[in-house]
């Protein structure tokens, strides 16, 4: 049975890092979008934020791909990255932008993550030799 919790070599820690970089890229993109571009220094700041956003997204994608390479299945990696991104985005939105998250939002995010975890716990397909053996006996 494939587990989402991860074990040695599962790449879950790399997926968590990828989720953190994804959140950082989103934060930088939102800051760049809200930056004033009326003067040369503010235009420069906006450009720097956009470049850092691209760097964060590139690094996050790199960690995500590395996590996929270390895992036997993409589902646990996707769950770990999505969970990290959901939670970090909510925290960053609350701290940096003074956004509020309701109990309904947290329940919804939890249900999405629970659904992803349930998908991960579906028993893996049986190997070809086991299937061939059953077909011989029929």
UniProtKB/TrEMBL annotation:
<feature type="transmembrane region" description="Helical">
    <location>
        <begin position="103"/>
        <end position="124"/>
    </location>
</feature>
<feature type="transmembrane region" description="Helical">
    <location>
        <begin position="12"/>
        <end position="31"/>
    </location>
</feature>
<protein>
    <recommendedName>
        <fullName>Transmembrane protein 42</fullName>
    </recommendedName>
</protein>
<dbReference type="InterPro" id="IPR037185">
    <property type="entry name" value="EmrE-like"/>
</dbReference>
<feature type="transmembrane region" description="Helical">
    <location>
        <begin position="43"/>
        <end position="65"/>
    </location>
</feature>
<feature type="transmembrane region" description="Helical">
    <location>
        <begin position="77"/>
        <end position="97"/>
    </location>
</feature>
<keyword id="KW-0812">Transmembrane</keyword>
<dbReference type="InterPro" id="IPR039632">
    <property type="entry name" value="TMEM42"/>
</dbReference>
<keyword id="KW-1133">Transmembrane helix</keyword>
<keyword id="KW-0472">Membrane</keyword>
